[in-house]
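Listing S7. Sequence submitted for prediction.
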Amino acid sequence: MRGVLVSVEKKKATVISIILSFRNEADVLDELIRRLELVFSKEISDYELIFVNDDSTDDSRKILEKHHVRNSRVKVINMTRRFGVTECVFAGLEKASGDAVIYMDCDLQDPPELIPSLLSEWRGGADMVYTVRIQRDGEKPFRMYFTKLAYKIIGTFSEVELPVEAGDFRLLDKKIVLEILKLPEMEPYLRGLTSWVGFRKAKVEYIRAPRAGGKTHFPGIFSASAMDQFSRGVTSFSFFPLFSLFVIGFLTVSLSIFGLFGALILQFIDIFWSPWLYGGLIILALWGSLVCALGVIGVYLARVYSNVRGRPRFVVLDMLGFSKEKQ
């Protein structure tokens, strides 16, 4: 009975908020908005399209201003500088007024036509609906291998369940949005936070299309943006790296002690032994483990420092299409 009541309430929802964090996507914005408007022309709920502009240098802002004049549901948040994808999504979450929020990429790799499936699961009682990419068209096998490996590493170390191949295309009920906005941490890993808050979940599988236009902002698996997301994923929800360093250090010291005993035995039975070579290797191993340990501890300390500073996640330059209450 409760599930039926939830479904009825959600069918009466007045607004669905779509958050689109982007930078320099002038080549795809017209087609993206056309497809989103077509999707919602067949929906019972009203909608708002919140575009969060991460300091674009192309004509993206002008294109969105033109669409806003034609359709007031198109809204824009402009950042003062480049803050990053996750921070822009948070800016959209703060200003969204919908009973449900869907955030997705602007490059049309995540098809707008999948939105009715997400809404169907939500109206059926799910509080969060995440998407799982069963296939990625147009991406190189080398990149795919390391992307899946990164997901598995993050999922293995995490204290909460993080589905593999579940990216930044998902629906959140308003109550989840409110809970996430209460979390004060800097450099958040949004994929992890949406799982950490709990609530009822559902998944929708799809085939991810090639990029429709423009240039990717994650140009390589070892790019700064990709490594930043990987680091956030590992350190946000797991202390495993710290514990593993203790184990590595313990094993390194143990092997060094065994090596020293071996050197003494070989020297005692008069077999050739080069103390300089093996001694150097032992010192190198100890030095490597120390540097590795300091590096991982440094990542955690950097996260603590970011939170202690108390700076806001982002700074908004101006907004278009929002009520005075939201501004």
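Caption to Listing S7: primary sequence and predicted structure tokens for the chain studied. The mean pLDDT is 76. Residues 275-309 form the longest helix (35 residues).
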